[in-house]
Amino acid sequence: MNKSKGWLALGCMALSMQGALAAEPASCRNVRFADVGWTDIAATTGLASVVLQGLGYLPAKQIASEPIVFSGLKNKQLDVYLGYWDPSQTPAITPFIQAKALQVLPVPNLEGAKYTLAVPSYAAQQGLRSFADIARFREQLGGKIYGIEAGSQGNAQIKKMIADNEFGLGGFTLVESSEAGMLVEATKAVRQKRPVVFLAWEPHPMNFLMQLTYLTGGDKQFGPDFGGSKVYTVVANDWLQRCPNAGRLVSQLRFTTDMENHVMEPIMKKVKPEQAARQWLRSHPQALDSWLASVTTFDGKPGLAAVKSYLAR
Questions:
Q1: Whole-angstrom Cα distance, residue 284 to residue 258?
Q2: For the chain, what is the domain count?
């Protein structure tokens, strides 16, 4: 046998074996994401899903409330949740962490987030600047504070303030609906130049689509620095071990508030999250370099080249 051909054959065999070793079990191809219905989670899940599609995986998402999401991860009916906001969701997830029913990855996927009550800036100019000011504007506010979906920890904190008459809020009504419902009411008030108090957070396009002022004085309720938050990735127990390649990608995802704000903007205009994510990634392919370091396709081929090719189609 020709020696050079023999080495070539051995090299091809080694590459083939490496690819076979890198390929994951068929059960890993379906990656099941959780989504609590917030646009920022839709954006990050969309970004992750597009990359996974480029790698040959079949991502899907289930929209559910926080308790159902954490229970789904515990029962391994879901694989990944990219949206654990600390500290706002910490009370809800703590029992699951203490029971070791799921796994929180140690490094946050987003830093510099915030989550607390806010008002339009013209209301702040009228004197509504802190939690302690809300009660003085009871009549103009109609005695209402606008929250998001039932079961969220933000709503729970508002309910507690009302029940305990903190800041003189006894008798106020929490309006629970959804992120979209809250934004409809806030936008309506802004058009009419009426004061309105609502749950707000960053990243979110609301931060540049309307002039907001985050209220001071809510450190005890929402944490310092206007509910300064970190967002963590949560996975089902042993998912990283069972699906190490997909797990490596998920573990390496890092986002910024600016990135999420701009992916979220078209989503708010009814563009599908995957489409908005794909558009952003086409314009910012450099984000893929760190996300896809040492990540392969589902069948074991180089991941970065595959995803860039997929985005270029």
A1: 12
A2: 2
**pTM of this prediction?**
0.80
CA distance 174 to 179: 14
Q: Which amino acid is at 16?
A: S
- Model confidence at 88, pLDDT cuts 50, 70, 90, reads confident
Instruction: Please say which residue of 227, 250, 273 terminates a domain.
Output: 227
Half-sphere exposure of residue 287, counting CA atoms within 13 Å on the CB side?
Answer: 21
Whether residue 5 lies inside any domain: the answer is no
User: DSSP of 165-228, one letter per residue?
Assistant: TGGG-TT-EEE---HHHHHHHHHHHHHTT----EEEEESSTHHHHS-EEEPBS-HHHH-HHHH-
Query: Of 212, 227, 242, which residue is a domain's last?
Result: 227
> Is position 3 within any domain?
no
State pLDDT tens for residues 17-29: 344 344 789 999 9
